[in-house]
Design brief:
heterodimer, A: 475 residues, 8-stranded mixed beta sheet, 14 helices, 29% helix, 20% strand, B: 426 residues, Urease, subunit C, domain 1, 13 helices, 18 strands, 27% helix, globular, Amidohydro-rel (chain A), DHOase/Allantoinase_Hydrolase (chain A), Amidohydrolase (chain A), signal (chain A)
Amino acid sequence: MAHTRTCVTAALAFLVPALLSGCQSTQNSGNDSEQAAQKVNIDTNPYPSTYTPIEGQPTVITNVTVIDGVGNKIDNGMVYFADGKIQAVGENIDFPDDARVIDGEGKWVTPGIIDNHSHLGVYPSPAIGSLSDGNEMTKPVTPGVWAEHSVWPQDAGFARALAGGVTTLQILPGSANLFGGRSVVLKNVPSRTMQDMKFPEAPYGMKMACGENPKRVYGKKGGPMTRMGNVRGYRQAWSDAQDYMRKWEKYEADVDAGKEATPPKRDLDLETMAGVLNGDILVHMHCYRADEMVTMMDMMKEFDYQISSFHHAVEAYKIADKLEQNNVCASMWADWWGFKMEAYDGIRENIPMVEKAGACAIVHSDSDIGIQRLNQEAAKAWSDGKRAGIDISMADAWVWLTANPAKSLGIFDKTGSLEAGKNADLVLWTGNPFSTYTKAEKVYIDGGQVFDLNDPRMQPQSDFEVGQAAQGENQ
Amino acid sequence: MRKLIIAAALASAGFAQSALAQNIAITGAKIYTQTEQGVIENGTLLIRDGNIESIGNDVNVPDGYRKYDASGKVVTPGLVGAMTSLGLVEVESWAGVVDASVGDASVSHSGAAFDVSYAINPDSTVIDVSRIEGVTSAATTISYTDYLFQGQGSVISLGKGAEIIKPRAFTVLDVGGNGAEHSGGSRAALWVTLEKLFDEASGLSEAPGLDTVWEGLNTRADIEALQRILSGDMPLVMEAERKSDILQILAFKKRHPEVNIILMDAAEAWRVADELAEADIPVIMNPEMNLPDSFEAIGASIENAARLAKAGVKVAVGMETHNIRLATQHAGNAVANGLTHEQGIASLTSNPASILGVSDRVGSLAAGKQADVVIWSGDPLEVTEYAEQVFIKGEPIDMDSRQTELRDRYQNFYGQDGKTSQYIQP
């Protein structure tokens, strides 16, 4: 653990690759030149994951309808998983005699749902001021705050989301600020600590926000009070981050050249932004309006970073071609609209129209209620597309719930599909998950069972709910 | 464009609705009548002069009726939005006056006097968006005031013109934490205030005349509204989540048996389901609210609707404005968690109609009722099914909204080959 951590430490997000070797030599010998020893290293992973998978057993689900999350459907298929990984998926696959066999007749199996937009833990239940920790609404540029430092693992919403088949979720800061802070990717396992839930090796994200929210919050508190003020705010901050990187690069170069050098003062805000510019931290940007999204994509080119996904994106359908060209995902609701001006042009066909244009469409929740039935959110969008002449298969629609959000979070090499070698994050549904009446029956994370619809012992309960007079969902 | 053509057709007909009124026959459908006739398989429904003429298995279609073949499809009464702010709000946040929100207004001390029937905008795009998905009428209310009461709501039709089916149809009052905040921050003040307001109103035979000096707790305008509540003419929709608050409502009902009470929100209502059934207090709710999102809703449960209905409580589902169209999904999820399918359909149609006092006109399909009818592609509670054709007062409505027009505009913009032009052309 210590070794890994120190090594990551040395690979400071924004340092040039040449410095990596410096890190490694320091690490390997522990007795390097004085210059290297003097170099200030910054630990980029000071709150490391302590996640340990729940122990599972080799399991095969047979006679089941399989949706693999990358566009394929097998009507009478099998899924075999063991050692925390998907081992095989197909119509007829080999599995060992001692594997547990679950007859999936009439049921469907899918990859676990990945919600890339949740505020569970940072805006938990109960929704009271004392637990409201999602928006650092003190100044518009706060990329140095980390959502993981607000996550309350006892939010009852985690278990409700699990009952809806959500196995992985990104917890984002709110959207009051131009730069809202770092996100964290969690595995949805009932735990005492955020670190126990933290998805190992998932990159950090950084939240940004367009439009109405920053200008409403700061319009009378020193600004920005306009959209042009918002853009000035982003650009100045990016420019400051570039300057900050140059200072560190100069420092590193001076130390390497044997010169006397004082390390720059750490700036936690700029450190996160430098991580983005270096490609280690993924940008998730709250943005509703088509024209604003296009401006943001220009800005991304101006400062040479990549936006991973726009979030909410209710006007994505107007610029789906440009999203495709720029390789930016859109994370959307099926049908939310009208609650504010920038959501006024929402249409039900937003998701299928983004899909049709070949862009990366994602179904997200941004809601502790919506996260409980994201399968229905995808089902609505699938049906809305069909009505509008956009024929998408259910298997392709499921990509919106697993593979695409996994890609937006930089974890698709680990999860988001039922393919051999991937983490065994999967859901066995009581039937077709495009139906209102279908529920998640069994949920597995890394091959360990976390939830069972028919076994109260497999239905997590938060500390907050323990010992209350009223036991709503847990009786 | 289609709208323009229809408008032109109306113009040439001199806007005479009756001149356009058609006799309509819907055949072959599975019909949820929401009456003693129950569900009719392969049924026929006749519409004449805006009303339902007859309904059943053995109904012959007379000549001259425009036929809608609904074989394999489902027909229900038009959905009745149980609690919305339709017509009172276009965009909620920071976009001009929202008539669903009342700040300082000296005409009232308690908020009881406000009356939304003056405030409804039939041109709101939210009405079109909702009606093409099967919502044909709705309760519409102020959703926020600086006062105790949320004024007097109306029940409106979502047909063109948004006719008011029933003005001053109900008054909403929060007796939970939100209500307490308007009463010094405590229920200890809220209930005393409420009782004193009602005491004063009940002690007067009528509102004091202009020739008397009046310095009561209520303003003259409030007294009239409170007297209508006290007589049972105007239902009082009491919002509460916590069991103890609902018990207070039951106690209030005992003290004021004439008052026609509807419970709303009601997270912990299942804990007192039998008592609510016995007191004949119906519930308006969103059954998806299953989180302990405050200390008032610790017992929130996804089975709330099912448990209430099982105890005999009349349940209405549908508390939204922009997305009141999602009431079908909400009811569907209640059915997925124990509500019967029949109760699920009732929670969207006959139950809200009867709770709101408009069941003589809407909410069920029977001869003589207003012909608010929906042909669905399949089970309305399935998220993948949808309203194929909606009729309001016997007229097949134009199934377009600003949203479908935006959709078509951009689908055309991308073109058949997926290529776009630089400029948007209508």
